[in-house]
Known about the structure:
Blueprint: E1 3-15, E2 18-28, E3 38-42, E4 54-58, H1 69-72, E5 78-82, H2 91-94, E6 102-106, E7 112-113, E8 126-128, E9 136-137, E10 150-152, E11 162-163, H3 173-181
Parallel strand pairs: 1-3, 2-4, 4-5, 5-6, 6-8, 7-9, 8-10
Antiparallel strand pairs: 1-2, 10-11
Amino acid sequence: MMIIKCEFSLRQKFFKGVRYHSYSCLIENLEIPINDNIFEVNHLPGKTNEHVKDLRIKDCKMPQLLQDIGDTFKNVEKLFIFNSNLKSLTKFDLEQFENLKQIFVYENDLEFLPSNLFESTKKIEEIYFPSNKIKFIGPTIFDNLGNLKDVRLTNNVNINCCYGSGYSEAVTLEQLIEKIKN
């Protein structure tokens, strides 16, 4: 049995010039066995799992996303996975986050992003996968993402570009899709 202890705090954030408060959970420095997902959660007074909007996983050893973590935190809008040895991410991993708007997967070991990755998360607005080992991206990965505003795929093996405002070397979404297909 594994117990993950999450410490929660209200963070004041600035995003694109707008200040907002978000209740977030940080899971840090854990070596995670794949099939042992039991969570102990410590909240601020008056807060519950349903209040968590940001889930941050940092410096863990987890080749795949924790199973059923989305059942624990049903209202996650922003998923951040940093330096956690993540090797695989599938539509089944993400379908547990139906409210997901932003995904940040930095400095992991991802090599493949399947076309159907965001099939169950149609609210996605921002996708960030810099500094992974991405060699292949499914050519229809962005289909049916009508809210998509930003994509960052920099410093990967076979792709190094951005789409969206605020990037000096940004390409159009059509150009990005063309790069993926080639």
